Protein 1
Amino acid sequence: MFRFKEKYFSKISNDPKWYADTEKETQIEFANIINSGDLAILKEILSKKSELEREQLFNSTDKYYKTPLMIAIINEKFNMIDFLLSQKVNIYLKDNFNWTSLHHAVRTENFKVIKKLVQLDPKLKSMKTISGNTPILLADRFGMKDISCYLSSLN
C-alpha cells in the first residue's frame, strides 16, 4: 500500500518533499516518479488516493514552484504530460519566475504540448513571466519562428 507524506525541512534543504511510502518504508519522491515516466507506478499510487488528494498532488510544487506538469514538460516525459493533462491539473500555476507550463513547453520547443495547452485555454499565450515575457515573446527571443507564428495566430 502507498501513502503520501509531506516532509518539511530536509537536512539538505528546506525544499518540501512529496513522497510515496510503501509498506517496506521505502520512499520515492513524487518528482522522481514523474521523471521516471513510469505511468503504471503513478496510476497504482493514485488509485489509493481520494480525488481531493490526487488533485492536491497534481498541483503541488517544489521549492521553485514547479508543478508535476512543468517537471514532465521540462524533462520531455510525454506519457506523463498526456496523463497529467487528462487529470485535474491547474495549467495556470506559475513557478518562481512566473513561468507557466506553456512557457516551459515553448522553451523546450515542444510543439505538441504547446498545442495541447493552448487548446485548453488560448489565453495562456498572454501570461507574462517575472521579466514580462509572454510565451510568444519567449519564442521570439529564442528564434522559434514557427512557434511564435502559431501562438500569434490564435485568437
Protein 2
Amino acid sequence: MKKKDPCVDEMNPKDLLGVKKSPVHLVPPALVIETAPAMANGADKYGPYNWREKEVKLSVYIAAAQRHLMAYWDGEDVAEDSGVNHLAHVAACIAIVLDAAAIGKLVDDRPPAGGAPALLARQDKTAPRGDRTGNTPLRVSSPNIIWKIIPHQHDGEWCEDFSCPTNLGANRQEAC
C-alpha cells in the first residue's frame, strides 16, 4: 500500500494532479549540472542535438559509456581529451540513448538476449543461492563431491555455509 503524502492537499486539484506526474524533483541537480559540460563537449565535436538528426546506434553509446565507466573505475576521474568527469560522459551517453528512444531515433542493435540476468541473480548475495524461480540449489564441484547449498535462512540471513546441518544433510546424499 502506498503511503499518503502529508504534503498533498486532497482538496487542492493541482496537488491531486501534480502527484501523478513524473517526479522530476527527485533527480539531483548535480546530474544535470555535471552532465552539461559533457553534452557541450559532444556538441562542439558533433553538433548540438546531432542524435536527433540521424539515428542513434545503441551499441555505439553503450560502448562509449562502458569505456568511460572503466576509466573512472580504474582511477581516472576526468577524461584527458575533454577535461570532463568520466561519470558525466556516462550520463551524457545514457541521456542521448533515452532521448533517441523517446523520439524514435534509437537503433536497438543489442545482441540476442543472453544469460546475464540469470547469472547476476545467481551471484546476488542478498537472495537465496540458485534459480529464484525454481529454487534450484547451487552446486559447487570438488574432485569427489558435488556440494550443494540448499536455500534457507538463519535469523533472516541467507546461509551459504557448507557445514550447516541443512546443507550437510543434503550433501551426504551427493558424496561419491
Protein 3
Amino acid sequence: MAEKNDQASKKRANPKSIFRQIAKGDLVTIRDNAGERKGHATRREYGNWVLVLERNAGAALATKENTMAVSKPRKLDQPPRVGQRLVYDDGGRRSMGKVVVVDSRSMHVLFDKSMEPSLIQFNDPEWMDYISIESDALPKYEAGDYVKFQMTDERAGASEWMWLRVDRVDAASQLLFGRLDSQPVVFDKELSLGQELAVKFSNVREHKKASDF
C-alpha cells in the first residue's frame, strides 16, 4: 500500500519537475480547462511562465500544475549556405525564401513575396521550429555574379571580408573562380585588386547579382 502511495506521489510531482526545465524560447505543452495547448515561453510572471500560443491563439500561463511537456529549440546540424532555399510553414502560413547572408548565429532570408530580407536567429524557436532547409540544393551561381567571402589568417588572428566577381563556376568541385573586386586592407601584401582567386561555396557569406548594386 505504501509503495502505491509513493508511486502516486511521484506522478503528481512529475509536472513540477517538468516545469523546472522551462527556459525562455522553449516550446511548452500545457493542459488546463481550455484543453491541451502549446506555446513558446517568453517571460516569468509571479513564478509562472507566460506562453505565446501557437497559431496566434493568444497567451497562456504555464504553471507547475498544468505543464505537460517541454521541447528545447531545434538545433541545426550545420548552418545553411548562401543561396540555399528554405520553407517556412507554421500550419497557417507557408512561405519560401532564399538565404542571402549567413553568420555563426543567424541568417538573412529573402522570402519570395518580401522586398526586404528577414533576420532569423538560429536559436529562435518561433522561426526555426517551422523552417525546413533544402539540404540537397546547391546555390546557383553564374558568371558576372558577386560573392562576399572571408579571408583569414588564424596564426595572426586576422580576417577580412572581400568581394569576388565570378568568372567561372565549377559546381562539381563547389568552387568559384573570379577576380578580387575589393581593395585589400588587412591582406594588402598577399592580395591585390583584380587578382584571380578561387573561393569555396562553403566560404561564401553573401551573394548578389550585378543588378543588385
Protein 4
Amino acid sequence: MDRSCDPAGGGVARLADVRRAVAEYDRPATLLAALLELSPAAFAALAVSAESGRGLSAVGPALFDLLGIVRVYTKVPGHPPDLGRPFTLRGGGSVRDVAQQVHRGLAGELRFARIWGPSAGFDGQQVSPDHVVRDRDVVELHFQGGHGGR
C-alpha cells in the first residue's frame, strides 16, 4: 500500500489507506495484519473487540509479558500451593525478592527455597535466595530458626 510522509519526515500511513483497508477486510486478523503493514514502526498488537468480547482474555497476559512482570506463587511446606494470589515481581527477580514481599521482617533470615516450575531443574529443587524466578514458579520458603515457609 502507498505510504506518505508527515512533515517531520517519519513514515505514516495515509488515512485513506487505512480506511480502504478497513473497508476491504472484514476479518479482524486480516485487518490487524493490514494495520501492522501500514504502521511505520514495529509494535505489539492484539486484535480485540469490546463489542463481542473476542480477544479480551489475551490482554492481561500480553500486558504482563510486555511489562516484564513475573507471577510467583507460594506454598507452605506440606500443603498445596496458593494459586489464587500470586506475588508479582519484575523480570529478573529472585527468591529473596519473593521473601521480601511475603514478610519483610523474615526476609533476612531466608536460608533456601524449594521451587517448582519453569526455573526449576526438577520439581522441588532446593535453590539459594539468589535464584532467579520465572513466571508461574511455585516457591516454598525456608527460614532460619524453623519459621514456617510460605
